[in-house]
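About this split. The held-out portion is used to measure sequence recovery: a designer receives only the structure tokens and must propose an amino acid at every position. Recovery is the fraction of positions where the proposal matches the reference. Here is one held-out target exactly as it appears in the evaluation file.
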């Protein structure tokens, strides 16, 4: 009988031994009342009849919420998948279990995250959300930290990640239509610019050709003026150098070069005047010259 009692005490002793590992905290509920403290890692003995041991994980944990909807500052609908890295307050885990329980994710974390996401997106227009995701994440993190801190849940400053951010199909269709219109406008603007450049090039070419023709005409006119001036100067010099005697000599020389003789002037006292006697070429000389 004594051996039976020893065996029973040994079994009860083993059943009343609990271990808390690193990264865990434990609470004890004695006759339905939770102890007002959390126990760190170690080995604990307790009465299994009157006491229950509850283990709480205080390491970093991840909570993922998919396809959470929110509205932007310009009233555009967005959807996001959000991953939150959080820890439980190891010094107040007994309060968390007393006030919320083990289903704190559904009761506290999920609705707080939804509210924080809506509060964050409300500060940004849709185009800002797409280009400034880091600022949006910072806004959501701050809002979430405030909402869960009172429930002994801690979120680090880099604890929120927006892994997937999408906009509504209607908005995407509108953006696509806008992009098409912008591309068309750019094409039209390019055509106008190209036509303007072509016209400008044609004007410059025509101007260059006109300038070339004008310069050529100026050159020709200048050449004519120079030639006329030189001719006039020459004529003036020649005119000044001529004298009656010289002219008579050149006239005589010209008549002689043509085979003629200088005409003779004969005075007739009976006729009361003068008459000009022209020499006549002999037929023999004319025939010889023709041959």
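Reference sequence for scoring:
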């Amino acid at each position: 009988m004594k051996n039976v009692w020893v065996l029973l005490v040994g079994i009860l002793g083993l059943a009343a031994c609990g271990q808390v590992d690193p990264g865990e905290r434990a609470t004890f509920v004695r006759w339905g009342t939770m102890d007002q403290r959390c126990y760190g890692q170690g080995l604990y003995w307790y009465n299994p009849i009157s006491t229950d041991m509850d283990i709480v994980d205080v390491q970093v944990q991840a909570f993922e919420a998919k396809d959470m909807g929110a509205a932007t500052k310009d009233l555009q609908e967005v959807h996001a998948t959000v991953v939150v890295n959080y820890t439980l307050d190891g010094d107040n885990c007994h309060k968390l279990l007393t006030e919320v329980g083990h289903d704190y994710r559904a009761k506290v974390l999920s609705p707080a995250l939804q509210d924080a996401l809506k509060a964050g997106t409300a500060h940004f227009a849709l185009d800002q959300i797409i280009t400034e995701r880091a600022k949006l994440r910072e806004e959501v993190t701050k809002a979430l930290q405030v909402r869960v801190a009172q429930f002994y849940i801690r979120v680090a400053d880099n604890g929120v990640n927006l892994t997937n951010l999408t906009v509504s199909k209607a908005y995407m269709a509108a953006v696509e239509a806008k992009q098409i219109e912008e591309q068309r406008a750019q094409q039209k603007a390019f055509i106008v610019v190209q036509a303007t450049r072509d016209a400008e090039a044609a004007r410059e070419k025509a101007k260059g050709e006109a300038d070339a023709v004008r310069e050529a005409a100026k050159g020709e006119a200048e050449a004519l003026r120079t030639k006329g001036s030189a001719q006039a100067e020459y004529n003036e010099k020649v005119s000044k150098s001529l004298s009656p005697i010289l002219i008579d000599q050149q006239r005589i020389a010209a008549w002689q070069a043509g085979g003629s003789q200088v005409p003779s002037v004969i005075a007739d006292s009976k006729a009361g005047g003068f008459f000009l006697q022209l020499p006549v070429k002999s037929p023999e000389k004319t025939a010889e010259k023709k041959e």
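Annotator remark: Residues 61-173 form a domain with the Tetrahydropterin Synthase; Chain A fold (CATH 3.30.479.30).
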